[in-house]
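Exercise 7. Given the encoded structure of a 283-residue chain, write a plausible sequence.
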């Protein structure tokens, strides 16, 4: 096979490989999804896979006019509900696993201080309390005449809340994305929190990560809506129209990219050789 034929075949392989690479980067696998506009009015638990978390049944979460809402201000743990993933997502042995935890919502009564999370991801995809924990916690804290969103990787002290600085408007709908980066190795996970009028117009709002101390990096198994509150941990009032969690498909190995580079290098070398040959003949 001539060098020219090899160059052509490698260039074709590069084109196909790079196309597949781009497709993989754009693909996301759904783990949990709820558009409450498609739900029947009534109890959330029992609809489309939603289950009650633990045993609290007071103030049951309810769908009304396409939204799940609660007023906030409770000083006890009212009903929580979770939507399980097909399987638990564990920490990667290498590289980074990225989950997008998305919500469309408005905040009607932000926490005045020491906020309790209104949404999170459970460690596993069951209601069992054994080994379960709430990670990727999302809160709304009063600021000025509005509020700010905050997030933390999990509930351990080494992963504190990080808040945005841009004041948001009470009662206005926002698209909220917690981009959860599960990075191989301990104490290096982080969350990029994005906010915008819709998911096509998101801006980076805050970044939450490790600060100090001993922590355990989280696993994830279910999306959770929480009405937890106490006399010292304050529950926010929210109105949520959609919730979803997706996992970004891992990028292909560097071998595929290296193949693209090699094929391009061979093609470039062939062109240069052809050009020198043509110049020599012309001389």
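Solution.
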């Amino acid at each position: 096979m001539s060098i020219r034929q090899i160059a052509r075949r490698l260039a074709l392989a590069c084109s196909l490989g790079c196309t597949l690479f781009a497709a993989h980067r754009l693909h996301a696998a759904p783990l949990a999804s709820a558009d409450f506009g498609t739900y029947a009015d009534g109890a959330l638990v029992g609809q489309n896979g939603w289950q009650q978390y633990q045993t609290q049944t007071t103030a049951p979460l309810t769908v009304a006019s396409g939204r799940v809402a609660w007023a906030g201000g409770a000083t006890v743990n009212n009903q929580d509900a979770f939507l399980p993933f097909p399987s638990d997502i564990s920490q990667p042995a290498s590289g980074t696993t990225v989950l997008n935890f998305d919500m469309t919502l408005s905040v009607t009564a932000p926490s005045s201080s020491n906020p309790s999370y209104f949404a999170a991801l459970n460690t596993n995809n069951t209601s069992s309390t054994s080994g379960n924990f709430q990670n990727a916690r999302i809160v709304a804290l009063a600021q000025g005449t509005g509020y700010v969103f905050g997030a933390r990787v999990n509930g351990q002290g080494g992963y504190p809340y990080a808040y945005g600085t841009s004041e948001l408007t009470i009662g206005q709908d926002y698209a909220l994305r917690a981009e959860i980066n599960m990075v191989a190795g301990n104490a290096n996970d982080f969350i990029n929190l994005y906010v915008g009028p819709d998911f096509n117009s998101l801006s980076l709002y805050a970044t939450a990560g490790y600060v100090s101390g001993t922590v355990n990096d989280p696993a994830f198994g279910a999306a959770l809506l929480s009405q937890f509150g106490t006399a010292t941990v304050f529950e926010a009032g929210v109105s949520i129209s959609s919730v979803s969690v997706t996992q970004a498909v891992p990028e292909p190995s560097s071998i595929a990219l290296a193949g693209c580079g090699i094929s391009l290098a061979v093609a470039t070398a062939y062109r240069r050789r052809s050009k020198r040959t043509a110049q020599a003949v012309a001389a």
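Remark. The first strand starts at residue 28 and ends at 35. Students should compare their own answers with the one above.
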